[in-house]
Amino acid sequence: MKYRLREGLHWCQCAGRIVFLDLLEDRYSCLSQGASAAFLALASGRGGPEEGERLRSLILRGLLLEDRAEGSLDRPVRVPPVSGDFVHEPYPRPSGQDLLRAVTCQVGWGLLVRARPLATIVAQLEGRPRHRSSDPAAIGRIERAISAFAAVSGLFPPQDRCLVRALALHAACRRNGLRPSLVFAVRMNPFRAHCWVQLGTKVLIGDFEQARLFTPIAAFR
Fold it and tell me: Distance (Å, rounded) from C-alpha 184 to C-alpha 11?
């Protein structure tokens, strides 16, 4: 029997375990070591009926769907390994307008995250027009935005300093014609999730020293 993943489900292998990000449910989950091995067998095309039986719980939950026609488990996302932060200290000095924009933008995205499912936000993000900027000042504006976000970070609760900041800065980059990746990632023992914005191999926001400790599970541009 062939299988495919339900829409909105992303996965990666982290510390020998398979971890899922379910955008529709806005949650992470993890398979046992035995189930992880069975899932990898299916993903590599080596799985048989016994692997399907070991993943019965995923089938019953509607996460793993039987698909006689195609039966493809998408490979994990590939994101270039991070090599450093986009802006190094000392940060460029943001203007008062930069600071105000950093606050209002994060407040707006914070409200949006609380009001809409993550899957809806990501779909809207991917559906926006893409263009590349020929304006050499765009990089300077993004550097000031990063500096402003860092300056006002203490105004927001810790739970808003990851996803909301990343969404807000990602939106600012796109407005300036840049096309970075919004990266979701995980680590184990203990389990933690993280989100950052990455352009090439540089972390715009999300801290390189922290980002390099995580395994990417999904990325959106």
Answer: 11
Is the residue at 140 inside a domain? yes
Evaluate whether residue 107 is within a structural domain.
Answer: yes
pTM over 0.85: yes
Q: Identify whether 75 is part of a domain.
A: no
CA neighbor of 168 nearest in space, from 149, 183, 184, 150: 149
Q: How many domains does the chain have?
A: 2
Q: What is the pLDDT of residues 25-36, one digit of tens each?
A: 999 999 999 999
Q: pLDDT for 126-178, tens place per residue?
A: 766 555 655 778 888 899 999 999 889 888 876 657 899 999 999 999 888 88
Give the type of residue at 98. D
Give the domain extent around 146.
84-220
